[in-house]
Amino acid sequence: xxxxxxxxxxxxxxxxxxxxxxxxxxxxxxxxxxxxxxxxxxxxxxxxxxxxxxxxxxxxxxxxxxxxxxxxxxxxxxxxxxxxxxxxxxxxxxxxxxxxxxxxxxxxxxxxxxxxxxxxxxxxxxxxxxxxxxxxxxxxxxxxxxxxxxxxxxxxxxxxxxxxxxxxxxxxxxxxxxxxxxxxxxxxxxxxxxxxxxxxxxxxxxxxxxxxxxxxxxxxxxxxxxxxxxxxxxxxxxxxxxxxxxxxxxxxxxxxxxxxxxxxxxxxxxxxxxxxxxxxxxxxxxxxxxxxxxxxxxxxxxxxxxxxxxxxxx
Length: 314
Known about the structure:
Blueprint: E1 2-5, E2 12-16, H1 24-31, E3 36-42, H2 46-56, E4 61-67, H3 79-88, E5 96-99, H4 103-107, H5 112-115, E6 124-126, H6 136-153, H7 155-162, H8 167-170, H9 174-191, H10 206-215, H11 223-240, H12 248-258, H13 270-278, E7 282-283, E8 286-294, E9 297-303
Parallel strand pairs: 2-6, 3-4, 3-5
Antiparallel strand pairs: 1-2, 7-8, 8-9
Helix pairs in contact: 6-7, 6-9, 6-11, 10-11, 10-13, 11-12
């Protein structure tokens, strides 16, 4: 299955196929004519799939950098290590960097959002079979983001998720579910390359979610779990203010339970508001909150930290 992100001269293809990783070299040869490649991965993913990728790149001069797994790796402290490894390997602008892994590796470094360094990939390969090696905990984690896509843009995707009893029950449809999520993001990115408008909708659940992660120093709730809590709690608060159709929070809660995700963390909202004010989506002392009119229909709602007042424990 092939999708194309249409961004003019920065357009790129996305391929979603089972076992595509073993044939990565043939796809890479279509977009890269050089010889030197730096593979950046983490210490969970590389031991499992590094050799498969390297075997498909036998005609290239490959170098590898394996970083510690986990959310903190996205931060600025990783930059000296990354730059040092690239200098040692003599990686130049004409060479290729491959991110082998999920969200954290793909987001390196997080500072790109702060320094304005937006570069689109040349190619994205997605192999659903690699999920077979993920511990169940991380499967649940990933489902938090999939549920988000249904909430913000696709009521039918949300109903598909709701119609199953577990991840195992959903698995035969997983390739299509992943493709739908990727396609939603494709459309959003095409409309807004530089994260200034519609792309903000992808942050549904993240304003509260990020602050929960930060409060516990990324050591308690995982990213997907924190986003799940953020989606439910924000929807509950928005319903109380008449900003979201009644019953949306309950429907989200039902789906979170199916896929083993939490809906609360037990913290008083006052403990989180300071972290909210420091979040990168807090611009000029205003928050661009992503709310739902209804499941599948989202919008950006500018407000301040006072939106969270009176929520009690979340």
